[in-house]
Structure formats: C-alpha cells, structure tokens
Specification:
Rossmann fold; transferase; single chain; 11 helices; alpha/beta; Methyltransf_11; 235 residues
Length: 235
C-alpha cells in the first residue's frame, strides 16, 4: 500500500477529519455517506466490514443505523480516532474496530453480508488482489469508490504526499470481471476536485457544488467526474 508510514502517523490521524471534512469538505463527507447508504440500504441487522475504516466516518454511521459493523484499518492512530468518535453515541447495531491488513483479512470465507472500502483503492498497489480478498469474506455485496483517470484530480495528483492510483471505467470493469463481481450500479460525481472544496468555506463551496451537481448530471460530463461509487454483487 502507498503511503503507509504517512497514513499511520499520529499527527495525520488527529488532523485527518478536520483537514478533509471541515469547511467545504463537509459536502464531500455528506455525499460519500449518502452514496454508501444508497448502495446498501436497508442496513439494519446486516453484517458489514469496512476496509480501511480510518477514523470511523462510515462505521459509526452504519452502526447507528442498526448494522453490525467491523471497521478494519492498518493504523492504530486512526482506529483510536474512530473509537473516540463512537464514544457516547447511541448505536442501534454493534461496532468493533480491529487493526489488520486488507490484503490478508482475518475472517473466514463468506463472513459478512457487505464489504465496503471508501478512499482505499487509490492507494492499492494490487487492486485485483485486494478485491479478491474482499470478495472472499463477503457473501453478497461489495461497495467501493475509485478516483478517475480523466478527472481534474489528475492535474494535482503528483503533489499528493502518497500519490493516487487513478482508474478508467474500463479498468474497473476488467477488475470486476476478473473477480467474478456483477455491477449493480455506478454513480459518478464531483467535476470540481476535492481539493477545491476542502480549501474554501462552506458558504462558497455550496453554490459551486450546486453547479457541479447540475452540470455533472450529463452522461458526457460523467466521463470527467473525480470519483465513481461502485455497487457490486457476487455472481
């Protein structure tokens, strides 16, 4: 995995949510959570594994909605942030945080209803191997996102501390075929890059987001979207 040392640093974990999901980044957080919920609802009583759960944005949300969730991450510091986030929350389901390697998941075959991985595949050095491992422990559904090759993100990708792997639609389709996954739906979003939203106040980001959503609704502009949300099922 790219950037493991950077990602596991205490100071990165402490500042992770504030840097990415404050100001205009709140719009990104809201949209990503909506994409996950839309893909797997209803979540009540479903067993869900989140790969690279980070600070627990999705795990806590899903447990609050009644799912039985395991959040797995390689970073102890990130997991600590997730546990703090869950403290004092009323959770209708269950929530457990585990440290582990996404390439060697510590679970038996067909253990979870759904496996999700958000903000993960742009760091994967062997995406097919990771997807196969996710498929092994799922008995029904896999949901993940990718950053796209023909998006504005490609212009500043070189400046990111760990670099990002960018995907074309055909590349992801090939990965799904190789791992025996059937595409249920793919949603494309964010013509404007994430970095723009994170750098400006919400009051400025909101009208940009409204324009982005309107223009991005065209099949032509989907090709240039920053991110795609993939909802897949086992064959």
């Amino acid at each position: 995995m790219k950037g493991q040392e950077w990602y596991q640093a205490d100071e990165v974990a402490e500042e992770y949510d504030d840097k990415r999901f404050s100001k205009g980044g709140q719009l990104i957080d809201r949209r990503e959570k909506a994409a996950v919920l839309e893909a797997i609802m209803p979540v009540e009583d479903r067993s869900i594994l989140e790969i690279a759960c980070g600070t627990g944005r999705f795990t806590v949300m899903l447990a609050a909605q009644g799912a039985d969730v395991v959040g797995l991450d390689i970073s102890t510091a990130m997991l600590q942030q997730g546990r703090r986030k869950a403290q004092g929350r009323e959770l209708a389901g269950t929530l457990e945080f585990l440290r582990g390697d996404a390439g060697r998941l510590p679970f038996p075959d067909d253990h979870f209803d759904t496996v999700i991985a958000m903000r993960f595949f742009h760091l994967a050095d062997d995406p097919e191997a990771f997807l196969r491992e996710m498929r092994r422990v799922s008995r029904d559904q896999i949901v993940f996102d990718t950053f796209n090759r023909f998006s504005a993100r490609s212009m500043y990708n070189w400046a990111l501390p760990m670099g990002s792997r960018l995907y074309s639609k055909s590349e992801v389709s090939e990965l799904l075929a190789k791992t025996d996954l059937t595409l249920v739906e793919v949603e494309d979003d964010f013509l404007a890059p994430y970095g723009l939203y994170r750098s400006i106040p919400n009051a400025l980001a909101s009208p940009i987001r409204a324009l982005d959503t309107t223009v991005g609704g065209s099949p032509v502009t989907d090709h240039f979207a920053s991110v795609s949300y993939w909802n897949t099922r086992l064959r």
